[in-house]
Design goal:
CATH topology of the largest domain: Beta-Lactamase
Helix content: 40-55%
CATH superfamily of the largest domain: PAS domain
Largest sheet: 5 strands, antiparallel
Radius of gyration: 48 Å
Strand content: 15-25%
Shape: rod-shaped
Number of domains: 3
């Protein structure tokens, strides 16, 4: 069975929901530990009181007279507990203290975290009822059972319960002796809320903080997981629709719109898929245009050869028709050389390792040679006198500039081609401009695809052209991690190459 990422995340969230159940179990264990400690402590307290009465009855009488009969037991609060003494017949002969009624706390009288913790414990208890493990068994008449056990000479403890079975108070009793003579017993009764209240409040406070943290973490995790799952699903759908099987064409695939500092692995994957599909789309366009371009370019030289051979056969004259045939062969040779050049440059780019070099020095030597070749038709402006370092390969960049300058010369007719070098702190900029107009049928990106020719039929007849020059210039610019664009500025067509600068010590 194949589990999707969303299913796995939902299963993980369900597992995380069991954490509050563990908290509830911890609360039960903690409550049991509190009961054990308080039961033991109250049993020791009543035994200490019995020893005071047995050994120092005068001290007990004096403390009663002063209004503080439990001065030696500071933890005993007689405002929420009672002491009573029973005689040998089980009758109560003395009572001190009082059991104040429990004050009902409202939502606003409790601390926020305490209320959250208590609500969490109650909610889980309602979902999964569980009886608290009281160590002392439930009895319908705990008071009489306690007195009977004390009169038998044993220390005993009982809980007093309300009508709903909830403990109200804890009673602890021990035998009372005077001069080694059994006199009865002493009973200490304390309210449960006074016994466990302070510690339970701290416990509820901790549970409340933990519950809030858990809810925030689960909510954040759930939101992020659902968002991540939706993004992956959208990416899957976009990839599935990126290819049209009926038309055998690549469809549009949107790149990530997230800022760079916010991108994660999914955004990077989308961007890489977008770049891959863009490369495939360019290659698809190249393959689709290749038969048409070759048929168009091969038509003229083959037609010239065919006519020359036909006329040669008909007339027997050699000179004019052999010249035309030779011209057709030269055109075919040029086409084959152009295809071979494009393939060799792609292979050279793959095998060449980028290295830092002085762009300004390389261009000075290159522009000097081009100036001698084209004469006054080529205007060169070096606007930067400082050293400019870029990473790439100078010989490849010369080939890219050859294509741009040749392209500008072909389209400028008798106009002037201007080449400009400038630089800023981050990049070097090379511009090749010529008078003319960009074709309206193609956008600024399509003209850099392979097999895209911008020439008119008259220009094609002068020399065959496969539309690979700007494609080669784009490949070389991308090898330098740069960018090449074409733009129309008034009556000038400008091809701009932007190359990022680097330090001389950079190796790549």
């Amino acid at each position: 069975m194949l589990l999707s990422i969303r299913t796995r995340i939902l299963l993980l969230l369900i597992l995380l929901l069991f954490f509050p159940l563990l908290v509830y179990r911890l609360a039960l264990d903690f409550n049991r530990q509190l009961l054990e400690q308080q039961i033991i402590q109250q049993s020791q307290t009543v035994q200490n009181l019995a020893l005071i009465l047995e050994n120092r009855p005068d001290l007990w009488s004096m403390q009663i007279f002063q209004g503080n009969p439990t001065r030696q037991l500071h933890h005993l609060d007689l405002s929420r507990s009672t002491l009573w003494i029973v005689n040998q017949q089980g009758n109560t002969t003395y009572v001190i203290g009082r059991l104040a009624p429990q004050q009902e706390q409202t939502r606003f009288s409790e601390a926020p975290f305490e209320w959250i913790g208590k609500t969490t414990i109650r909610l889980i208890h309602n979902l999964f009822p569980h009886t608290l493990p009281y160590l002392i068994p439930f009895e319908s008449d705990p008071e009489q059972s306690l007195i009977r056990q004390v009169l038998q000479g044993a220390t005993a403890q009982r809980f007093r319960f309300d009508d709903q079975g909830r403990p109200i108070s804890l009673m602890s009793a021990t035998p009372l002796y005077l001069h080694n003579q059994f006199q009865g017993g002493i009973v200490l009764e304390q309210r449960v809320d006074s016994l466990f209240g302070p510690r339970l409040k701290r416990f509820y406070h901790i549970v409340g903080i933990g519950t809030l943290v858990i809810l925030l973490l689960i909510s954040a995790f759930g939101f992020y997981a659902i968002t991540l799952s939706n993004r992956i699903r959208r990416l899957q759908q976009d990839v599935a629709h990126a290819f049209d099987p009926k038309r055998h064409r690549l469809q549009n695939f949107s790149d990530t719109q997230t800022p760079l500092w916010q991108q994660d692995e999914v955004d990077q994957l989308r961007h890489q898929i977008h770049e891959l599909l863009q490369a495939l789309r360019h290659y698809e366009t190249y393959l689709r245009q290749l038969p048409k371009a070759l048929r168009h370019e091969l038509h003229n030289p083959l037609n010239r050869l065919h006519l020359s051979l036909q006329r040669l056969k008909q007339t027997g004259a050699l000179t004019p028709y052999l010249d035309q045939a030779q011209r057709g062969v030269e055109q075919l040779q040029y086409i084959l050389n152009a295809l071979s050049e494009a393939g060799s440059i792609e292979q050279s780019i793959e095998q060449t390792r980028p290295h830092p070099y002085r762009l300004d020095e390389m261009l000075r030597a290159y522009f000097h040679a081009q100036q001698e070749r084209y004469g006054p038709r080529l205007q060169i402006h070096m606007n930067e006198s400082n050293a400019i370092w870029v990473c790439g390969d100078g010989f490849l960049l010369e080939q890219a500039l050859d294509k741009l300058i040749e392209n500008a010369m072909d389209f400028s007719q008798d106009g002037t081609v201007t080449v400009t070098l400038s630089a800023n702190r981050e990049a070097a900029i090379i511009e090749v401009s010529n008078p003319g107009q960009l074709p309206q049928a193609l956008n600024a990106e399509q003209i850099f695809n392979g097999m895209t020719s911008l020439r008119s039929p008259a220009q094609e007849n002068r020399r065959p052209h496969l539309g690979l020059g700007l494609y080669i210039a784009r490949l070389i610019t991308e090898f330098h991690h740069g960018q090449i664009i074409a733009q129309q500025v008034e009556d000038q067509v400008i091809f701009q190459i932007t190359l990022p600068r680097c330090r001389p010590e950079d190796a790549s």
